[in-house]
């Protein structure tokens, strides 16, 4: 690639301009975006499973409506993100194929089981909370379509987080059994939510390049620290405890220090060996395969409609 073009591209990035689909971009920028945006899209789609598991067992009509709306929003996020990824010159079929039958990743967090209804509360608070921290940053990303998709996603995620936090607060203020359920869910989801931000910066091969191109504006560790600082306050406000004996306010840095993340567990999940990895993939493949007739019918309808219009 010609150095002049690369320099011009870098200057545009540094001037804060958005890169749009028809603009020139380095191949590597395109490949990195396809990797990251499709991983994000797949995560939204697979992320419907842990919560979908509880729609039929929601404790009240109100909770059921809220959860239905939330899960439906995740589907919408997946669809905007697939469309945004397609602007980079890859088809939806290829993306789905890489995800269901190839080696594309999705977020580690969705490979944990949802054991009680309190898990739905903890997911809203912690998982959507982590997603907002990450995606508010991505809403300023240099690639226009990704940035705009994240602006919309964050608006919806804020509602998701609020509903989770509100439910968890209610449980934490409920009967002793409810309090125990709330605390147990927080204990199980805390460390996996910290892992959502990815490996430490020193072990993150993609960060330097993504930051140079302002696809990411902050590093994995910076975002994780921001999340911890915020969650410590929010946990205290509703009377739940974060399961880390090493959490301690550091006067010098002005941040909360925290204990060692179980990285072995993280890499094990990323490699496909988490508790729910196999089941999640099986459910997604089944849905895709059983939905084939719907895709065929839609394509056939589109073909006939076009023929009619041409007459
Ligand atoms: N899980 O070099 P880095 C949601 C992989 S939120 C699995 O640091 P990078 C909302 C990484 O891909 C969740 N794999 O990578 C919701 C790379 O492998 P590769 C989705 C992970 O890109 C809430 C390798 O490790 N959000 O869905 C993870 O600089 C509730 C080395 O890592 C996004 O995807 C992980 N946690 O930083 C839905 C946001 N972390 O690909 C339903 C967009 C790292 O080279 C219910 N993505 N890996 O083979 C990002 O911000 C970034 O891609 C990171 C990783 C931060 C995930």
Automatic annotation (TrEMBL):
Pfam family, one: PaaA_PaaC
GO terms of biological process kind: phenylacetate catabolic process
Record-level GO cellular component terms: cytosol
One term of GO molecular function: phenylacetyl-CoA 1,2-epoxidase activity
InterPro entries with a match to the protein in the record: Aromatic_CoA_ox/epox (IPR052703), Ferritin-like (IPR012347), Ferritin-like_SF (IPR009078), PaaA (IPR011881), PaaA_PaaC (IPR007814)
SUPFAM superfamilies: Ferritin-like
Domain of life: Bacteria
Annotated PANTHER family: 1,2-PHENYLACETYL-COA EPOXIDASE, SUBUNIT A, PHENYLACETIC ACID DEGRADATION PROTEIN PAA
Protein name: Ring-1,2-phenylacetyl-CoA epoxidase subunit PaaA
Originating organism: Gracilimonas mengyeensis
